[in-house]
Amino acid sequence: MTLFGGPFRWMWYLSGTLLIGWAVTLAVVPAARASSDQAQTLHLANAGEPQTLDPHRYNLRLEETLLNDLFLGLTTFNPAGQIVPGAAMRWQTSKDGLTWTFELRRDLKWSDGKALTANDFVYSFRRLLDPKTAASLAYFMYMLDNAPAVNRGELPPSALGVAADGPYRLILTLSRPYPYLAERLLYPTAFPVPAHQIDAVGDAWVKPENWVSNGAYTLQAWQPNAFVHLRANPEFISPVPIRNVRYHPVVNEQSAYNRFRNKELHAIGSFPAGELETARRQYPDSLRMSDLLSMMYLVFNTRHPPFNDVRVRQALSLAVDQHTLTEKVLRSGNRPAHSFAPTLIEGYTPAKIPHFNQPYAQRITRAKQLLAQAGFDQNNPLKLVLRHVAGIEGKKVNLAVLGMWRQIGVQGVLQQAELRNHFADLRQGNFQVAWAGWVGENNPEHYLTLLKSDIGNVNYGRFTNEEFDNHIRAAQREADLIKRNRQLHIAEAAVVHHYPVIPLYTVTVRRLVSPKLKGWVENGRDIHPSRYLSWQDQLALNHNVNVRLSR
């Protein structure tokens, strides 16, 4: 991207030169392509079974992975996970940061061939914020003018700050500056959905037989708990090297590892930490390690006594040793976290938890004192249930946490659930203490607003603090990024003393990727759109096909 000065900032579209050579190859051998589809299907592991493929109703990272292949937003990722123009070829921002104008590409189409225009984005943003959609992540676009009131049903969707100025110009009007907007538009909540198809078949539009999207791939088949199969979208702005992609829901890391070794999968998202040294020896050309913009944490249900008592939350936090979790329990490269906003965020200094530098023995002593003040001792021990996602690694971490809590007299038990059920219960507030994770943007607000009182059910613990909310609101009035981040630091420094969560660690991704694949670039978002991938032997394969056809 290139930025130009003056009262407006312009970002210009960069053409996808990675795909030009492939486009020529496709033109040479169209007849041979279908015959080789099955052999050249890309098989990828996904973290579980999606609950939905409706971009406005998604909630899980594993759904986001699929949706990034199926749709193209105004902005998108390049192979390195950097923000580049997508459906919009350029955009401008007004000096006060409140008006963003997007110029759309002229060649945008839905997978059924219908032209895609600015009105489709207007419809989509309105649908996202319409309370009838019941989008749990609707707050992602609360910076749009009137968005909260629309989402609460106080104003009609037509009052939302989004408008079309002709077929190729989209205008987003914000109620407050939001310098991170280009990044926020990367998420499925900002993807266009096909109004004409939704009008025709309603919620059934997400079925394969009714599917219409604008991304590099379309939904070909969805066999629950077996696979989701994607097929190249012939109407996409550029042809893709790999025509068929099949995502397999693989919850268990050991199962993913075994299936990779058996050559059933070309890439897996993780494997058991205990296999890391073996993978280094046996699969040196496949092992991919990278730090992820992420935060794994424990959240307290502050509406469930005694976790509404800050002394209890502080005591439990004091007893958790993040370094022990990462260095002795996980031993897989994950980094201990002492703040809620990840340290990987560029241009931001997180506020660390107050006991960051205290000796552990001192922390244990203080934790026991706090529990005693809250009415818990040997005769009346604190008893709790710690919920976590099913999986070997998660169980190891949370068993270790229970062991740390036993040192201060806490009696805890584990309760596990599959990923989607776990987070469904968290959104409903059905827990005492629970493991949670947030993977996302390169800005602190994305994480800190999870603790804002009016953010919705992704504030799992229903934490409320007026001082913190006021600091967040003050930050959200700042258009200048440096000033905004400075105010966010003040907000984080104020909230850490209330211990609404216990930061645990940021993730280091352990992937295995077939050396037959090229175009896979490690990045802090761990984003790898299938449209950028191709086979190492692709040209040789097509040369051989050409020879056979000529004979």
Comma- or semicolon-separated keywords:
six-stranded mixed sheet; disordered C terminus; 551 residues; single chain; Dipeptide-binding Protein, domain 3
Q: How would you explain this protein's 3D organization?
A:
- This protein has about 550 residues and is α+β, with helices and mostly antiparallel strands.
- The chain has a domain at about 295-505: Dipeptide-binding Protein, domain 3 (Roll).
- Helices cover about 30% and strands about 20% of the residues.
- It has helices spanning about 20-30, 30-35, 60-70, 120-130, 145-150, 180-185, 195-200, 255-260, 275-280, 310-320, 320-330, 360-375, 390-405, 420-425, 445-450, 465-475, 480-495, 540-550, and strands spanning about 10, 40-45, 75, 85, 90-95, 100-105, 160-165, 170-175, 215-225, 225-230, 245-250, 265-270, 285-290, 295-300, 335, 385-390, 410-415, 435-440, 500-505, 510-515, 515-520, 535.
- The strands form 6 sheets. It has a 6-stranded mixed sheet with strand order 15-19-14-18-16-17. A 5-stranded antiparallel sheet has the order 1-5-6-8-7, covered by helices on one side.
- The model is unreliable at about 1-40 and about 540-550 (pLDDT under 50).
